[in-house]
Amino acid sequence: MHLLLVNPNSTKSMTEAAAKQVEHHLNQVYPGSHRNIKISLFTGPPDAPPEIDGEETSLESTRKCLPLLCERRPAAATADNLQYFDTFDGVLVACFSDHPLVCELLAKTERSTPVTGIFHASVTVCLSRPGSQFSIITSNDEWVDLLDAGAERLLGASRPYATSSCPFKGTVASSVPVLDLHNPQNLHAIAKRIYQENVQRLRTSTIILGCAGFSGMETPLKDEIRKIALQEDPSNQLHVTLVDSVICGIETLALMCRLQLSVGE
């Protein structure tokens, strides 16, 4: 199975960080010769936005990436002269949003190539946990309304979330720019924000790390949140589940590919 991980912004270091986390996960789950998933990487071109911080940059990144992803491969490379993204078994758009690139690729595929985004995949995973309420921690403040609106479209949720029967309880902004999320100096501030807002105010113990820039931060964030909880109350037995959206995306996409192959046989 050959999957394409698409980072629609132009920051290669974000692509590499997500890829590193995916490779680590796959090597643990499928050790040695049992691994049957290969990952290729795509980073947005230099004139794509360096980070996606709202609706405008989402649309701009789609405009810059779509022509490259739909380029025809030379006949010598692929006998069927397929579009580039259609040469893979599945495509993951690694931007945590209801990113328009997902729908654009699904509309253009000529061989029913599965395409999903890390936003859609991680929300689906959280819904599979019966009785578990969940929320999102994102980067910039601009994302709060956009992600809430995306979740409402996907789940049929409505505000106020606190009184809603829907397990989704809202989005919190870390107020840390995307490219600064991995800076160790910001770890405590992000963890404190999650503890105060996602855990205490929204009363959720399952929190989606709602940005590809969070990939690989699950363990250090969880440890820091635990320290903050113990400082507040030494008897606090807090348990939180931090959901890595990129890992959810890869596993969900792999399942989609397997099911499609099974149906086609």
In words, what does this structure look like?
A four-stranded parallel sheet has the order 2-1-3-4, sandwiched between helices. Strands 6-5-7-8 form a four-stranded parallel sheet, sandwiched between helices. It has helices spanning 12-29, 55-69, 100-108, 118-127, 143-155, 187-201, 218-232, 245-264, and strands at 2-7, 38-43, 90-93, 115-117, 134-138, 168-173, 206-209, 241-244. The chain is globular, with a radius of gyration of 19 Å. The mean pLDDT is 90. The protein has two domains: 2-119 and 247-264, Rossmann fold; 121-244, 3-Layer(aba) Sandwich (Rossmann fold). It is of the alpha/beta class and 265 residues long. It has eight helices and eight strands.
Summary, kept brief:
With 265 residues, this protein is of the alpha/beta class.
How does the SSE layout of this entry go?
Elements: E1 2-7, H1 12-29, E2 38-43, H2 55-69, E3 90-93, H3 100-108, E4 115-117, H4 118-127, E5 134-138, H5 143-155, E6 168-173, H6 187-201, E7 206-209, H7 218-232, E8 241-244, H8 245-264
Parallel strand pairs: 1-2, 1-3, 3-4, 5-6, 5-7, 7-8
Helix pairs in contact: 2-3, 4-8, 6-7
The CATH level-2 architecture of the largest domain is identified as: 3-Layer(aba) Sandwich
Helix proportion: 40-55%
Q: Which structural class do the helices and strands define?
A: alpha/beta
**What does the radius of gyration come to?**
19 Å
Low-confidence stretches: none
Which band does the percent of strand residues land in? 5-15%
Q: According to CATH, what is the class of the largest domain?
A: Alpha Beta
Side by side, the strands of the main sheet go: 2-1-3-4
**Basic shape:** globular
Q: What number of domains? A: 2
Oligomeric form? single chain
The DSSP helix count reads: 8
* First-to-last CA distance: 15 Å
What number is the mean pLDDT? 90
Main sheet makeup? 4 strands, parallel
Secondary-structure element pattern, one letter each: EHEHEHEHEHEHEHEH
Could you tell me the number of beta strands?
Answer: 8
* CATH topology category name of the largest domain: Rossmann fold
GO molecular function: amino-acid racemase activity
Family: Belongs to the HyuE racemase family.
Protein name: LAME_0G00694g1_1
Organism: Lachancea meyersii CBS 8951
